[in-house]
Design a protein that fits this description.
There is one protein chain. This protein is α+β, with helices and mostly antiparallel strands. It folds into two domains: 2-203, no CATH class; 244-433, Heat Shock Protein 90 (2-Layer Sandwich), CATH 3.30.565.10. Helices cover 64% and strands 13% of the residues. A five-stranded mixed sheet has the order 4-6-7-11-10. A two-stranded antiparallel ribbon has the order 1-2. It has a two-stranded antiparallel sheet with strand order 3-5. Helix 2 (17-46) packs parallel to helix 4 (76-97), helix 3 runs antiparallel to helix 4 and helix 8 crosses helix 11. The radius of gyration is 43 Å and the shape is rod-shaped.
């Protein structure tokens, strides 16, 4: 809620200029009622024309009436036009019966100027300005040319000074309060617009981040399923073409079973992680044997490696431990490491999986012989840039697997590194601190 001069204004009302104009109109009518009474009683005290003093007091009542009509029925613009007519009529009377240009009537021109400038819109504002200006000019010219008879009530300069001072004081306060309220309303509106813009920018940024996250998750899902589905499709195609002899069919069916198990396992792991990401859940920890986890991943990738007659060798250093860790994320990362190793190794190659268990840390390392990554490419190895590459049997890669693995590792507090300790050897390491 925004507060302006004691009036509580909600956000939707501050955004509505009609509401602000209505509030200014209410303030104008109420303050004019007070101002006319003050000026009327001031005239009586100063010994000015009793008639014009009581006219001021009497004409203050329509302003009070209009105030209540606006509060209850709205349509303040019509009411303002009516009150401007009343006000200009009162100005004419005050000019004639209160010393003409020598009196304080001319000051009211600026009061009228403020009112219709703030509350009237469009061509009517210009019309009021021209009409009001012509009226004052006509009064002043009529007095100077002797066409209008002016009644004088100032007995001396002291009364003239007091009357002008009182009138200027009340009108100045009137204009000050109205302008202050109007400016504060605009300032509040501007602040609100800025806050709304900031909220919209933040919302757009959140939508962009969510969209980027969705794209990464879809890319990860597609990346992880691409090779298993491709292998399954190839094997089924060979079976359909009777490319295998009768004695090999049983082995092929066993392979298909392995591939379907592998595909289901990959799908479950990836979907579990994708759902946890989309739901904004914290990482899910599973108590699992470190050796069992890496053997599971080795078994999962056997079908893919056997397609190129490659072997996966597992080495374990240190004693096995049961620990709580985000197993789905570890499976996804190690699976991608092995995907790349199989893809970029020659047929019949040996791919090494090393598990090193220490008191304060755990390290998984996947290494393979083949073409090493160029040094300039190592600098942007984990940057999210789509770049097509091809394995030793023209297996197509998109270059998104490692950047996604890096994002996953960063989120769960793990570390990924690449190095080439010797010629033609690629090593990817995933590390976890236990302290």
């Amino acid at each position: 809620m925004l507060l302006t001069k004691g009036i509580s204004i909600s956000e939707d009302k501050v955004m509505n200029m009609e509401y602000i104009h209505k509030q200014v109109a209410l303030m104008f009518t109420l303050l004019t009622f007070v101002l006319l009474n003050l000026l009327g009683f001031t005239d009586l005290l100063m010994g000015m024309s009793p008639m014009i003093a009581w006219v001021k007091i009497g004409l203050s009542l329509p302003f009070l009436l209009v105030y209540f009509l606006i509060v209850n029925y709205g349509r303040f613009r019509i009411a303002i036009h009516f009150l401007l007519f009343v006000g200009h009529g009162l100005i004419i009377l005050n000019f004639i019966y209160n010393d003409g240009s020598n009196g304080p009537t001319m000051n009211s021109f600026f009061l009228m100027l403020v009112v219709y400038s703030l509350l009237i819109q469009g061509w009517a504002k210009v019309a009021w300005f021209i009409g009001s200006f012509l009226m004052y000019f006509s009064l002043f010219y009529g007095e100077s040319a002797g066409y209008i008879t002016i009644q004088n009530f100032y007995e001396n300069n002291e009364k003239l000074f007091i009357d002008h001072t009182m009138t200027v004081t009340w009108m100045s306060l009137f204009i000050f309060v109205v302008l202050h309220f109007f400016i504060e309303s605009y300032r509040n509106q501007n602040e609100l617009l800025n806050s709304i813009k900031i909220r919209q920018d933040n919302s757009l940024e959140e939508v962009k981040l969510l969209n980027d996250q969705k794209n990464r998750l879809i890319a990860l899902l597609s990346h992880d399923l691409k090779n298993p589905i491709g292998m399954l499709h190839t094997t089924l195609g060979l079976v359909e073409k009777n490319a295998f002899e009768a004695g090999e069919l049983e082995l092929i069916l066993d392979n298909l079973k392995r591939q379907s198990y592998h595909l289901n396992h990959v799908l479950n792991n990836t979907l579990n992680w994708v759902m946890s990401e989309l739901n904004g859940e914290e990482k899910v920890l599973e108590e699992i044997s470190l050796v069992h986890l890496v053997e599971e991943i080795q078994s999962m990738m056997l079908v893919q490696s056997m397609a190129k007659n490659q072997s996966l060798e597992l080495s374990v250093f240190g004693e096995d431990r049961q620990i709580h860790l985000p197993s789905n994320e570890v499976r996804i990362i190690l699976k991608n490491f092995l995907d790349n190793a199989i893809k970029f190794s020659e047929e019949e190659a040996v791919i090494n999986i090393c598990l090193e268990i220490k008191d304060d840390s755990v390290h998984w390392k996947v290494s393979n012989y083949g073409k090493v990554i160029e040094k300039e490419d190592q600098l942007k190895l984990f940057n999210f840039v789509v770049k097509t590459s091809y394995g030793t049997k023209k297996e197509k890669g998109t270059g998104i697997g490692l950047p996604l693995c890096k994002r996953i590792a960063d989120k769960i507090g793990f570390e990924i590194k690449y190095n080439s300790p010797e010629d033609n050897l690629n090593c990817f390491t995933l590390s976890m601190n236990l302290t």
